[in-house]
Amino acid sequence: xxxxxxxxxxxxxxxxxxxxxxxxxxxxxxxxxxxxxxxxxxxxxxxxxxxxxxxxxxxxxxxxxxx
Length: 67
Hints:
Blueprint: H1 17-20, E1 23-24, E2 30-31, H2 55-59, H3 62-65
Antiparallel strand pairs: 1-2
């Protein structure tokens, strides 16, 4: 089924925030945005931003790719 002129291919609930900003909790847990739950790695552990990791690591992580 094709799209009508002016019709968006994005769902009505689409949010651009995960692609334009990042959010963390005060304890350093990574989130897609301030409304989202903490991101989890492939083992189900919460992802923490620390001195050993970078925002680039998070941005390119499997958790972000799943979005």
